[in-house]
Amino acid sequence: xxxxVATLLELQEAVKKFVETRDWNRYHNPKDLAISIAIExxxxxxxxxxxxxxxxxxxxxxxxxxxxxxxxxxxxxxCANLANIVDLDLGIAVSRKLTxxxxxxxxxxxxxxxxxxxxxxxxx
Length: 124
Description:
By secondary structure, this protein is mainly α. It folds into two domains: about 90 residues, Helix Hairpins, CATH 1.10.287; about 35 residues, no CATH class. It contains seven helices and no strands. Helix 1 packs across helix 4 and helix 2 runs antiparallel to helix 4.
């Protein structure tokens, strides 16, 4: 897939084609894909391990940005593959979850919160 802007559904289709072309569906099941998402998420966390918040706020260097991009891409690829396996449209799933979160965390109630505990208290 070329470097273009794509919808989540287009990304899902690209991942589906990639997997089918290699006949990898025989290896992919929801459990193993969920495990792979967790592993890739841990690899993303590892990039930030032991780095100060100040060094990250001052602008990530290009090497760090590239590593983050690769791990995020891996996570999204596995998510798209899992969505394909369980027959979900990720775009619809994300839109629905955002609607739930908008109701759960109304901006006017949580915007000026200083701590997460304040968000939880204001939510109710």
